[in-house]
Write a structure and sequence with these properties.
By secondary structure, the protein is an alpha+beta fold. The protein has 2 domains: 128 residues, OB fold (Dihydrolipoamide Acetyltransferase, E2P), CATH 2.40.50; 59 residues. 42% of the residues lie in helices and 21% in strands. The protein has 3 helices and 5 strands; from the N terminus they run αβββαββα. The chain has a 5-stranded antiparallel β-sheet with strand order 3-2-1-4-5. The longest helix is centred in the C-terminal third of the chain and has 55 residues. It starts with a helix and ends with a helix. 14% of the residues are buried. It comes from Sulfitobacter alexandrii. Keywords: Membrane, Transmembrane, Transmembrane helix. This is DUF1523 family protein. InterPro entries: Phage_phiNM3_A0EWY4.
């Protein structure tokens, strides 16, 4: 029973960690190599695509999506999608997809004359599921070793979440000690007394007359 309990809680916390890792913003230092637009038909991976641009028909089965191709300082390639989040989830309230695409197109550079940008994004890149992180913003930086900044938003959100979890846990322990544990002890005592009564009855039945 203890093993099942540990597996359950480990699974819960892994899912919570994955949720925050996907949703909270991250920053990459990259060199933008190209931008393009592509018709996308979300299927089984539709969970990892945002909605259509605000103001357009969001009921279409497919739509055009902007992409930003980059290369990181270590040389590996990363491709970002560029979609509005609008009023949906995650709550980045991003409405400037076209403007961001224009900025990214203007920021392209070559390996011979690189220009480096900090690109803020959320989401995961997965080749097997064909998912891409969604770019939120870009800003020019000095070079590939530039500071990404302190993720204050992530720190505040995670701290608030842990504080809420701790507060709920404390109140649950108090409730359990005050209400549940006494009830369980009373039930156990009642069952014990009944077992004792049954045992005495059988002893009397077996006793010689």
């Amino acid at each position: 029973m203890a093993i099942i309990k540990w597996i359950f809680w480990i699974t819960i916390w892994v899912l919570v960690a994955a949720f925050f890792h996907y949703t909270l913003p991250q920053v990459d230092i990259v060199r933008i190599t190209d931008t393009y637009e592509k018709r996308v038909d979300p299927g089984e991976n539709s969970l990892f695509w945002a909605q259509a641009d605000v103001g357009t028909d969001g009921t279409l089965a497919n739509r055009d999506v902007f992409f930003i191709q980059t290369r990181r300082a270590k040389g590996d390639v990363m491709v970002y999608r560029n979609e509005d989040t609008g009023w949906g989830w995650p709550p980045y309230f991003k409405f400037d997809t076209s403007n961001l695409q224009a900025e990214a197109a203007d920021a392209k550079s070559t390996e011979a004359s690189p220009e480096w940008y900090a690109i803020k994004h959320y989401g995961w890149r997965n080749e097997f599921l064909t998912t891409f992180p969604n770019a939120i913003s870009i800003r020019r930086v000095e070079g590939p070793d530039a500071s990404k900044g302190i993720p204050w938003m992530n720190i505040i959100i995670i701290t608030l979440f842990l504080a809420i979890v701790y507060a709920i846990w404390v109140r649950w322990r108090r409730f359990r000690r005050a209400r549940i544990d006494p009830t369980l002890e009373a039930i156990e005592d009642d069952l014990y007394q009944k077992r004792q009564g049954v045992s005495r009855w059988f002893e009397k039945r077996r006793a010689p007359k």
